[in-house]
Design brief:
Two copies of one chain form a homodimer. Helix content of chain A is 44%, strand content 16%. Chain A is an alpha/beta fold. The first copy, chain A, folds into two domains: 155 residues, 3-Layer(aba) Sandwich (Isopropylmalate Dehydrogenase); 158 residues, Isopropylmalate Dehydrogenase (3-Layer(aba) Sandwich). In chain A, helix 1 packs across helix 10 and helix 5 packs across helix 6.
Amino acid sequence: MTVPEVSDRLPVALDAVGGDFGAPPLVEGAVQAARAGVKVLLVGDRVRLHAELGRYEDSASLPLEIVDAPDVIGMDEHASDVRGRREASINVANGLVKEGRASAVVSMGHSGASMASSLLTLGRLKGVDRPAILAHLPSKTGFVTLLDVGANADVKPAYLAQWAQLASTYLSVVEDKASPSVGLLSIGEEDHKGNALTLEAHALLRQMPGLNFHGNVEGRDILKGTTDIVVTDGFTGNIVLKLAEGEAKVLFGWVRDALSSSLLSKAGALLVRGALRGVAARLDPSTYGASLLIGVKGLSYIGHGSADARAVKNALLRADRAYQSRLIERLTVAMTGQA
Amino acid sequence: MTVPEVSDRLPVALDAVGGDFGAPPLVEGAVQAARAGVKVLLVGDRVRLHAELGRYEDSASLPLEIVDAPDVIGMDEHASDVRGRREASINVANGLVKEGRASAVVSMGHSGASMASSLLTLGRLKGVDRPAILAHLPSKTGFVTLLDVGANADVKPAYLAQWAQLASTYLSVVEDKASPSVGLLSIGEEDHKGNALTLEAHALLRQMPGLNFHGNVEGRDILKGTTDIVVTDGFTGNIVLKLAEGEAKVLFGWVRDALSSSLLSKAGALLVRGALRGVAARLDPSTYGASLLIGVKGLSYIGHGSADARAVKNALLRADRAYQSRLIERLTVAMTGQA
């Protein structure tokens, strides 16, 4: 492989109009990323985006460009509506990646539509039957990588094996983790415990050369960080992700209530507030910004519709870094043995 | 239905030798339950149990009896080993329920073996294809009832519908909750979101007369208490249960670390300690003691192998209360329309 010097400076395409709050947090995040040196193409209605950009005094001097896309897929439309909507921001953004004019696409809009658009526009990597959504969760050991968190509700054992390989390559490339360990999410540590899907997947994973397969892991292992990667179907993974986020909120609510339950605890709360803020920051989903749709022929990041500017910025930074480390080329090699 | 006055005083059968720590915590829990007025049959090796009981000065005056069972299923044996082991404590305990000599069986031993023993000895209720394990999780609204948490890794849509009915009856009988709401765990609130299993189950649940079906719930809804009951397959449910318990441990570890991270936070920690202890107590799994194997023809409670005396006591109290409220008769009526 030769070093693609010029393309190292390709911009990241941001769907700058999709999401729960429209352009404002998206443009703000892009401005922050641009200030940090990342080039960004803002894709969406040109007039709206110019108006939004105008709010930032330094915007003219930043590596930001607007790419017009008059249409947008609303949060309440169907994912399949993405077909044939050529001028929809998410389709234009994916097109830029396909044409080699952008390094990656980042979307905080309709998740299903973003997924469909990337799949239809970019296609799948060779050796990948179904792309998966890869997310990070804060864990005892830093973070744990979980996939699939929602792209595929019904899966086959071979998908799980492919995802294990993709995630393993991803972590070694992007996070410099040598030989990351992979756990198969199941209902018992023993090899023979699980459902029909995991029992078959377990057998496949055991045979994969070069994969650091730990074996089955249980629900309690996920945040304990027993393995670097946890592989599961998109139904279970989605529930795990949302339960983990939801539980953190409920538990912190209880801690907050407890700290204001008496004069004594209120006084103590003043002293521990700073320390607890560190814990809350650790749990903040905007740290990662967005999840990677892994398995498509291009970098595609999909985040929460409610993403704030910090999440947008972090997603753009991650996308840029993944491109710099040639993630797609490395995944291609891993899945097919060819560059 | 006539009131079974005599049998109201039936004892609960406890497998008093199964579990990670053998007889000591089990006998201690039984002694505590007996002091609270619950009759208990301690099932296991007579000599060991007499020795253990001898440690409690008041044991002779308590409503405790020993039933000899020379054999025990070890924690590392296979669930199927329960077949043909007539003298194994768990089989003897289930036999006491079957013969009408005990009101319920409580086991902290090998979960798979306990489940198999109850299923083989007691049989299924009419209208129930597969019994499920019903557990309670602490939630924002008090607690949420979740099933199946591990009895069935692969399930059919009809099982989920039956479990919804069983759990609904259970909550109205045992917790006096009128028309408890039922959520189907899925990956989107909309009716059309889910996997093949939940889509079919959703349609079945929608048609059930008398069931307060809320619709789909997501991972984040579980601890929020969106519904009183969450129904799911035993694979997903087991992962949910263990993740929820595991996350609570990890988060409290972080809070603990944060509170001892500086002199300031250490000082504050002294003041908030009492308040936080309340939160920890809320999350303590021993509050519920054990989970109910619902759908078998008799009361069968199955708890953690690592259960402490408090968990054992609470499980015995719950079993006794469920018997007093004629749970099995009420479930029979609910599933077949006959007493």
